[in-house]
Design brief:
Blueprint lengths: L10 E7 L4 H11 L7 E8 L17 E5 L5 H10 L5 E5 L3 E3 L3 H11 L3 E9 L9 E2 L4 H8 L22 E3 L1 E2 L3 E5 H7 L11 H11 L3 E12 L9 H20 L1 H25 L3 H26 L3
Parallel strand pairs: 1-2, 1-4, 2-3, 6-11
Antiparallel strand pairs: 4-10, 5-11, 6-10, 7-9, 8-11
Helix pairs in contact: 4-8, 7-8, 7-9, 8-9
């Protein structure tokens, strides 16, 4: 028996797809099986996929909304597009390489609305081996960004970005939750101006959580909301660009939240430490293909520096 959709959705689920293949369909199947699925509006924003993954999508209790972009606009801009296509009081940004447990949406939404000062909630993410992933993170300070770029976290000299010393088994206020499952109040999302489109991919979730906390709202991990997460489900197919966008976005974050000096220092460390270390590891593993991808990422970052410097100066 097909559940009759509610008159108005209580939750918009925005999924940004780029060549997601079967992952997107598995994600949608999990949403169709969710409790109260009829009160959830699913919005898929396809960023110019070429693998047919956005074609003939499976039915949902409430008709799916599909937005097709002629070009890949990036994760943040596509999320903003999807959010603008809905009107529910809460928005869930969900990666296509996730599968939500049946009660996850309701548990997360209840936690979000339980306290008016809670602005963002995240779920407990389970990796393909069934282990709880460490998906909550510390606020990225300037020293922390530089220290981790220099791999000092591996020596115990600076704390790691993710909260690896905590099992994520209970609800807790945190600095940041991962964008693979990030639920936010719509009014707060509008107040913050949505995702910053300068982050093409990576670090946009850290930026949004930072801005929410500055606005006086808390970010919470909700252990009872569970989703399975493959991780790098679509970006793993473009290794050079994945590394390039990660490095670019961390420099942009440093400049936006910690100033030009931090961005400049992180740029120097990217070329002087992060890229050489990755190159050395690729060569140590006798992987010339991986080494070539690292060098390609370095070239992309070097070419992007003039525009990146201009973007970093536009704080907002």
């Amino acid at each position: 028996m097909i559940e009759r959709p509610a008159l108005s959705p209580v939750l918009d689920v925005v999924i940004v797809n780029w060549n997601g293949g079967a992952l997107l369909r598995a994600c949608l199947a999990s949403l169709a099986a969710a409790q109260d699925a009829g009160s959830v509006q699913v919005i898929v924003v396809d960023n110019a996929s070429t693998d047919g993954s956005a074609d003939d999508l499976p039915p949902l209790p409430r008709p799916l909304r599909l937005i097709r972009n002629a070009d890949n606009l990036g994760f943040g801009r596509a999320c903003d597009q999807g959010a603008a296509a809905g009107a529910a009081p809460a928005i869930l940004f969900l990666n296509p390489d996730t599968q939500v447990e049946p009660g996850a949406l309701g548990v997360a939404r209840a936690a979000l609305l339980a306290d008016p000062r809670t602005g963002i909630v995240g779920a407990r993410l389970i990796d393909p081996d069934g282990r709880t992933a460490r998906s909550c993170a510390r606020a990225p300070t300037a020293l922390g960004l530089l220290g981790r770029a220099l791999a000092l976290d591996r020596l115990g000299l600076v704390p790691p970005h993710f909260l690896r010393d905590w099992d994520h088994a209970e609800d807790r206020t945190v600095d940041q939750v991962m964008g693979a499952f990030l639920m936010i109040r719509r009014d707060l999302f509008a107040r913050l101006g949505g995702f910053d489109p300068r982050f093409f991919v990576y670090w946009e979730d850290a930026d949004l959580c930072t801005r929410a906390r500055v606005a006086g709202f808390s970010v919470r991990h909700v252990a009872g909301a569970v989703a399975r997460h493959l991780g790098q489900g679509t970006t793993r197919q473009v290794r050079a660009r994945r590394l390039f966008y990660f490095l670019r976005s961390q420099i942009l974050y440093a400049g936006k939240h910690h100033g030009a000096a931090a961005a400049l220092a992180l740029t120097a460390v990217s070329f002087g430490a992060q890229i050489p270390l990755r190159l050395a590891l690729a060569l140590a593993h006798r992987s010339p293909a991986e080494a070539a991808e690292v060098l390609r990422a370095a070239a992309l970052l070097a070419a992007a520096l003039p525009r990146l410097a201009a973007a970093a100066r536009r704080v907002g």
